[in-house]
Amino acid sequence: ASSSLARLLLLVVLCPYAAVVSAGRYDPPGAPCYTRLFSLGDSVSDTGNLASVAPNDSVLAFPYGETFFHRPTGRFCDGRLIVDFIAEALKLPLVTPFLAGKTAADFRHGANFAVAGATALGQQFFRDMGLDLAIVPPFSLDVQLEWLERVLHLLGPTEKERQDIMSSSLFLLGEVGVNDYNHPLFQHRSFAGEIRPLVPKVIQKIENATKVLIGLGAKNIVVPGAIPLGCVPRYLTPFPSDDPGDYDAAGCVRWLNEFAEEHNRALRRMLGRVPRGPAVAVVYADYYAAVMEIRSPATPASTGSGRTRRWRRAVATAGRTTPACSSPATPPRSCARTRRSTSRGTACTSPRPRTGSWRGACWTGPTPRRLYCPRADV
Q1: Could you give the residue ranges of the DSSP H alpha helices within 75-198?
Q2: What are the phi and psi torsion angles at 246 (to 5°)?
Q3: CB count, 10 Å around CB of 17?
Q4: What distance in Å separates the CA atoms of residue 31 and residue 28, rounded to the nearest whole number?
Q5: What is the rounded CA–CA span in Å between residue 64 and residue 72?
Q6: CATH code of 72's domain
Q7: Is residue 309 in some structural domain?
């Protein structure tokens, strides 16, 4: 549904049973909606899996983690991620990264299988494309689903126990798929000939994963769409243009945002046709709209409050200036002053007001807080 009445806060949609009679049992006010949270995806949700296999990655050095945890945790952010805010809202502890856990006790509240750089398609697909696999981790959706089954067998010795675990848990399936486009895009492959045709293949993989979760007994699944890629500094830098018409009013690259919208339309169509029982809720989380609401105030750049005008000017110029903060692999584009430089990159004095972006493609602390209840359609 597209009406405003159908656009509900994520946790309102998915937690209708708190403080009401559910399945003959009264859940008192404040009781958790779900007993566990399981997350699959990429760096938008990775809370430490890549760090477990790549201990020398820059994610384990400051300024990562400095604003909330006050130490690097393996999150690609200076604070918490969307999955962290969801866990807190559900009154659950922050879930353990799969590669950091060993026992059933480690996963008693769920598990996070997301890995930065992960893809929907398997690594072999990109090998067959002839891509450099150095930055394509072998932790695709299929691998993450295998990890989930290992955790389920650890938590529940019998099939009945495992189905009970699945039915009482919340599953965050994504954001995933963007890296399937990123890896060939940043290796200079043809957009029209090689990258755009990947959309149906990526959507098929996400559909397969959704069906696997339902087959295992999942009752509540959230599937986020892609963010507006054209608004992200990582993309603004390698795809500059001197034509103002190539950018929208928020300073975002139009064709990249149109591509993200194409992915999201295909994803929503797929979710609408996935077979499910009446007790199964599969929810599309509109990260795209949520990010655009943050980045694009309704008023034009020339109108509105002084604060709004300053915000829109900052966003509109974020991709077309020559500031001085970056990661080693990403030329500087996203903020104007440096706070600290290391061999692993340069941090910004004030990254949040500029773009809300972290390391060129991930979000700073306040942004996930505003995204953890994105617009959702049932």
Answers
A1: 82-89, 123-128, 141-155, 159-167, 178-185
A2: -80, -5
A3: 14
A4: 6
A5: 5
A6: 3.40.50
A7: no
The two tokens of residue 28 are: 């008192």
Q: Which of 8-22, 26-40, 161-175, 358-372 has the highest mean pLDDT?
A: 161-175
Alpha helix stretches (DSSP H) within 279-325: 287-295, 306-317
Q: What is the mean pLDDT of residues 52-75?
A: 93
Nearest to 325 by CA among 306, 342, 305: 342
Residues 284-317: pLDDT tens digits? 999 999 888 887 655 344 334 443 343 334 333 3
Return the beta strands (E) in the chain as ranges: 8-9, 21-22, 25-26, 36-40, 96-97, 110-112, 169-173, 220-224, 281-286, 338-342, 345-348, 357-358, 362-363, 375-377
**What is each CA distance from 140 to 5, 56, 244, 249, 264, in whole angstroms?**
35, 21, 37, 35, 19
Task: Enter the pTM of the model.
Answer: 0.80
Its domain, for residue 270, covers 8-231+251-298+366-372
The pLDDT tens digits of the residues spanning 198-238 come to 999 999 999 999 999 999 999 999 999 999 999 988 898 89
CA atoms within 13 A on the CB side of 263: 33
Structural contact between residues 148 and 217, judged by C-beta atoms closer than 8 angstroms? no
Q: How far apart are CA 52 and CA 98, in angstroms?
A: 9
Query: Which of 5-19, 180-194, 355-369 has maximum average pLDDT?
Result: 180-194
Give the pLDDT of residue 269: 98
Q: Residue 255: inside a domain, yes or no?
A: yes
Name the more confident of 89 and 152.
Answer: 152
pLDDT greater than 90 at residue 26: no
Mean pLDDT of all residues in 29-47:
88
Contact assessment for residue 340 and residue 346, using Cβ atoms and an 8 Å cutoff: yes
Could you tell me if residue 336 is inside a domain?
no
* Number of domains the chain is built from: 1
Inside any domain, residue 172 = yes
Return the structure tokens found at 296: 């694009």
Task: Note whether 123 and 140 are within 8 A (CB).
Answer: yes
Contact 259, 196 (CB under 8 A): yes
